[in-house]
Amino acid sequence: MISIAPSILAADFSKLGELVHQVDLGGANRIHVDVMDGHFVPNLSMGPVVVKGLRPITKLPLEVHLMVDNPSRFVDSFLQAGADTLIVHFEVVSDPLPLIQEIRGRGRKVGLAINPGTSVDVLKDYITDIDLALCMTVWPGFGGQSFLPESPERIQKLRELIEKLNPRCELEVDGGVDLQTAPVCVRHGADVLVAGTAIFGSPKGPKLATEQLGRIRAEELE
Ligand SMILES: O=C(CO)[C@H](O)[C@H](O)COP(=O)(O)O
Ligand SMILES: [Fe+2]
Question: What is the pTM of this model?
């Protein structure tokens, strides 16, 4: 089963509630919230107040992609705000296990993300302890970038690792996912597709754009 995770980074924030409602109507499975600190990535985005604001207006799970240098500082505030999943970058944690245990101990899901320059193999020791592995398909920091050509091979390698060690772990892809690249991701083993620009920047509107990504996933599974 493939999941669609619209990234609100590309949304018009003056209409955020209505746009989240639209993607829900279009069949979105979760909402992806990109958190950037201006250190780990050269951009600033949103914090726990956005999660807190969204929590009462949607039943969709809220997953927080933490692109920050020191994720442990923010675990409590995002969980209190109502996040269902926290995704932490492997590059910033010397030992991910305490953080994984803390998040899981509080009844939420945890993901580990890797940048395009990080070997997929680094996740080997942690796959059994996480709910989600996020393969970045662009360099993190900005929406609207092009899908990196080395991504399919990396996705496939990660899928092999997951099948071997923990088939219940989800394989998410993030960055440059659209109607052209989504089928490639699914064919190589992705089961969660994050899409920002392709959904919120679509001239067809976010509901139809989400539906279209959903149809692609169905075709890929036939
Ligand atoms: O983590 C991210 C950027 O660092 C975003 O989730 C990602 O870029 C989604 O945006 P788009 O679909 O526009 O590429
Ligand atoms: Fe993201």
Answer: 0.98
Q: What local confidence, expressed as pLDDT, does residue 217 receive?
A: 65
pLDDT at 218 over 70: no
For 116, the token pair is 């395009």
Q: How many domains does the chain have?
A: 1
Q: What is the CATH number of the domain that holds 191?
A: 3.20.20.70
In the residue annotation, 174 being an active-site residue is answered as: yes
What pLDDT, in 10s, does the model give residues 146-156? 999 999 999 99
What is the residue type of 20?
V
Distance 43 CA to ligand 2 centre (A): 13
pLDDT at 1: 84
Q: Which ligand is nearest to the CA of 178?
A: 1
Q: Calculate the dihedral angle through the C-alpha atoms of 189, 190, 191, 197, rounding to the nearest 10 degrees.
A: -150
Domain that holds residue 86: 3-221
Residues in the chain: 222
Which atom of ligand 1 is the closest one to the Cα of 41? 4
